[in-house]
Amino acid sequence: MKANPESLANLRGQTRYIDDLPEAEGCLHAALRLSESARGRILSIDAKAAKDLDPSVIVIIASDIPGENQIGGNKPDEPLLPEDEWEYWGQPLVLVLAKTRALARRAAAALAISSENLPFRLDPRKAAAAGDFILPSRTIACGDPAAAFGTCAYVVSGRVDSGGQEHVYLETQGAYAERREGGKIFLVSSTQGPTGVQKAVAKVLGLSMNKVEVEAHRLGGGFGGKEDQAATWASFAALGAWVSGKPVKLYLNRKDDMRATGKRHPYTTDYRIGADASGKILAFEAEYYQNSGSTCDLSPAILSRTLLHATGAYRVPNVRVTGMMCKTNLPSFTAFRGFGAPQAFFVIEAAIDAIAKAMGRPREEIQRANLFTEGDSTYFGMPMKGCRAVESWDALLAKADWNGLKAGITAYNASERLSRKGAAIIPVCFGISFTKLPMNEAGALVHVYSDGSVLVSTGAIEMGQQVTRKIGLVASRTLGLSLERISIERTSTLTVANTVPTAASTGSDLNGMAAKLACEQILGRLAVKAGEILAVPASSISFAEAQVRVDGKPSGLSWDKLIEAAVDDRVDLSAHGFYATPGLFYDARAERGSPFAYYVYGAACVVAKVDLVLGTASLESVTIVHDSGTSLDEEVDLGQIEGALAQGLGWTLLEDLRFGEDGRPLTDSLSTYKLPDASFMPEKTEVEFLPPVKNPYAPFNSKAVGEPPLQYGIAAYFAVLDALRAARPEGKDFYSIPLIPEKIEAFLSGAEPC
Ligand code: MTE
Ligand code: HPA
Ligand code: MOS
């Protein structure tokens, strides 16, 4: 395979992130003073000691904000700087500018802030008991679960917990801002959503959006952390530039980033599941307590995805699921790959595990018997079309040689003293579309230059997922040109307006479709011109291999010659394409509709080994069968599957986000927060793509890939649990992510899980 030049540059460390950008003359550096308690009130701020360090130090507080001190996108509960109260440990209180970053940090630390602490709450269940919600709760119901439970041969209920997850993008949050003439401001932001940044900055500075230009280059990762929350740091840089009149660069160090920014939402959930004697699931109920943190942020959209994935890959006729957004004094939890779905998948898989155990039957029998099949409807009334759940499951069992694998594990466990093995399968059905319906749109701008080369701009942000390559491939296939002749421009609010963030795995679907539509407009005009030149009807013209074809046969007229002729004849060689996903609807009052364009399917099998002495789990193998539709680029998709798997395994087994009882972040560095690394990853990972299928909702029948494979990591929980049960059949089950060695030890020793 030919190496992708962009990936090579990235691998070699040649990519320029915000902090690598050259600074204009006089550039100031920003630092923030963060709060040091879970909740408190500012009484006074004395800047003397900071100014004493250097008189040029600039100290900016809430009252210096020229526009509105508010950046909350979904609810106005997020002041950029607190006027009075702060709501979590690590919240920015004061912005400081200085000639160097080191001086700015020292000055921020030197500020004398007098304050008083206020009562705070960290526990979402306690917040719920006190009625402290970000927004009202939501329930999706179908059938009559109460009656159905009465008819069930088995009913099991319990509690499921899952922890937060830190993004640990390679590039921390940051932005660069310059005040420009004409009352304008220019920003480069490490954001997944330039339009969101533009909106927030306009609001904070009191400007109209046409005075704010936001550019985004390749990010050193986002993983959801820069979908909404990049706006905070961009707004600080913009505010600094506006107040000082100088360019300002803001770049968080790792510790500040880990303290101040949002992470995956922790959830705690009560469930109840019922099945008939044959193992058919008849009813499922869940109450999800989402720990939303201190502000609204994306919590409602994330809760929505939780509620829409409550039954995972399974058909359940009677359902009642309620989600609560519990307000706590922790950093506002935010988007993280999977966006509320992994939390829901873990709950339903735990419930199925529990009921299978109650029946004394293998978990995978119950899973297989209840998979969605073609023509089923979800509990919110969406028909499953092109359903590949059973196909994925059966293909996986064959690929992993499930029966042989189980027999091998049984034999191993019978002969080993100090370790046990276990295996588990997870099926995945992941809905593709933004859960907030109006967000399902994208624009593109395409120019063909007079030398025949092509420039494509869209709203898509490149953050390592290779959306640039995918859009390039779409343009290349549409125009019939080689990839080398297509250049993908960085993302800017000047070229494409009102963009949605690159998120929900829809980046290449939506922007690829928009780019394709723009290319097709230009081709339409070129076909007329080519028809004239060749004296054939425009309808007989097509384009391939940089040549014009007539009725599919080479005409002798090259792309370059045609472009020359088109320029001479004043043909418009630029076009704007706009795509809005068709067919989506959702009735929020009835909680019924078709919120997703389609589903991505797949299944994974994980084999894990537990060291009974150390209490550590290691991964032997992961086998995956995955539906990429008709993949645009299998190498890219494979990279996405492996990356998402690593994050899923990390969330499930390793990453232990902790706060002290006082709300202090305890895992704010890479020495206290454990990440999956190469040695943690399974010795063997095998991925097989399901046969290609058609998908009209993405370019060239491809399918989104970014988030669905994260769910595969959840199988590791049940694989480890299996190994634990083999070691100690009477052990007390618990469902609590991450399954860290402390919990493994607790199971093995019969102690209460911590
Ligand atoms: N891959 C890399 N390398 N870096 C990232 O930040 N983000 C993930 C996924 N894959 C991410 C990534 C998330 S959370 C999403 S929603 C999708 O990429 C977004 O990009 P796409 O829609 O173009 O797939
Ligand atoms: N995923 C990611 N971001 C979003 C979504 C979603 O489903 N809905 C709104 N913002
Ligand atoms: Mo991804 S969590 O939708 O940015």
Architecture overview:
This protein is α+β, with helices and mostly antiparallel strands and 754 residues long. It folds into 3 domains: 5-119 and 167-260, Aldehyde oxidase/xanthine dehydrogenase, a/b hammerhead (Aldehyde Oxidoreductase, domain 3, Alpha-Beta Complex), CATH 3.90.1170; 267-435 and 589-749, Aldehyde oxidase/xanthine dehydrogenase, molybdopterin binding domain (Aldehyde Oxidoreductase, domain 4, 2-Layer Sandwich), CATH 3.30.365.10; 441-580, Aldehyde oxidase/xanthine dehydrogenase, molybdopterin binding domain (Aldehyde Oxidoreductase, domain 4). It is built from 19 helices and 30 strands. The strands form 7 sheets. It has an 8-stranded mixed sheet, with helices on both faces. Strands 7-15-14-13-8-30 form a 6-stranded mixed sheet, sandwiched between helices. A hairpin with a 4-residue loop joins β25 (585-587) and β26. The chain starts with a helix and ends in a 5-residue tail after the last helix. It binds ligand MTE, hypoxanthine and dioxothiomolybdenum(VI) ion. The site of hypoxanthine has 12 residues, from α9.
